[in-house]
Amino acid sequence: MTASQRAAVARFRWWLGLFWIGLVLSGVTAFPLLTELRVLVDVLGLDRADRSVFGAAEGIVTWVLRVRAGLEDVYVRYPWLAYGTDWLAFGHLAISLFFIGPWIRPAGSRGVLLAGMAACVAVIPTALICGQIRGIPLGWRMIDCSFGVFGIVPLIACYRLLSIIESTGSDGPTAEDADGETKKRRQ
Predict the structure, then answer these.
(1) Other C-beta atoms lying within 10 Å of the C-beta of residue 56
(2) C-alpha to C-alpha distances, 42 to 37, 38, 56, 80, nearest whole angstrom
(3) Cα–Cα separations (whole angstroms), residue 146 to 56, 74, 108, 127, 143
């Protein structure tokens, strides 16, 4: 493996790791939604603050307080509905597992990367259409769309690096190859 291929593999793994961490964090944070909203409201002092001090952000403040109140009501009256966000969290964690293979063996991972990019693109119409149907404010839908926009960046970077990684025509380096190269450089 050439030096440029080793460097490309390192950059590939950095970008993919960044994407993977984002996917896992967005999954893990879907479990404690009510707790997170209560903490956000407390930290920002939204319950006791004069909303006029927020100016243009007043709509977001109102939305956060409304969502917290809704979740508190649902968790008391219909706690099983939270099971849906538990499955959302699980889905993020399960999807993240598909990116372990490309991290170990970048070459040949085009299909996984393309599927990930397609999912990132699909976030946008899903947030815009379903959010409109469910009465989600446009600003919040834009935040949801940003997951697709920011998520696709590392995947595009990885996809572009594949041409360097696969330039030998072989399967490319594995995690063991990279570890072996690291050991050789240390000696």
Answers:
(1) 7
(2) 8, 6, 20, 26
(3) 20, 27, 28, 10, 5
DSSP string computed for 13-73: HHHHHHHHHHHHHHHHTTTTHHHHHHHHHHHHTTTTS-GGGGGGGHHHHHHHHHHHHHHHH
Q: What is the pTM of this model?
A: 0.81
Q: What is the dihedral of CA 83, 85, 89, 92, to 10 degrees?
A: 120
CA nearest to 18, candidates 154, 150, 185: 154
Q: Where are the domains of the chain?
A: 3-30+86-186
Question: If you write DSSP's letter for every residue of 146-158 in order, what string do you get?
Answer: HHHHHHHHHHHHH
For the stretch 32-89, pLDDT in tens is: 999 999 999 999 888 876 655 556 567 788 888 899 999 999 999 999 999 999 999 9
Sign of the alpha-carbon dihedral angle for 6, 7, 11, 12: negative
HSE-up of residue 69 (Cα within 13 Å, Cβ side) = 8
Farthest CA pair distance, the chain: 64
